[in-house]
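User: Show me a protein chain along with its predicted structure.
Assistant: Here is one chain, sequence first, then structure tokens.
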Amino acid sequence: MTLPLMPKATAVWLIEKTALTFEQIADFCGMHPLEIQAIADGEVAQGIVGYDPVANKQTTAEDIKRCEADPSARLKVLETALPGPKRGKGSRYTPVAKRIDRPDAIAFMLRNYPLVQDAQIVKLLGTTKETIQKVRERSHWNSANIKPRDPVILGLCKQSDLNDAVSAANARAEREGHPVPPPPPHHHHSEDEAA
């Protein structure tokens, strides 16, 4: 069963912009009609911006019209919408050599920047939450060989992107009142700054 890229956001859009039944939307988004009902009632997915499946070639306006006219019809996810080489969760396609390096970079982030959230690491390194979890729990198939290495040196991200992720994480920690750890030792700070 093929699902649109962002099912919940797509559901939000379909509820707001079309006359499809909850069943039809649920079917298209791979969700339960009650979930669609809850989204329509504003109980869940508040603040989720609708994701336009027509603009994103997940379906066509014609298909939506056809289904609006016939509640028993089912909206289909277009075959062309299937991620080709872009593969899956919007992560950039990374050559194999780099993919082997990813867990090292994840280990580096977990060790040196514990405040950076998984979601940020996903974006930064183009990985998935599952992979991060495995590295964290040392259940990754390659755990024995994972050693923390700087993703910038590995070429997985730019120094500026890494800095942005870290400062965003630190800012969030401060807002939430968590202590912010001092930066890892390899930054040359003068003593008084570190104190």
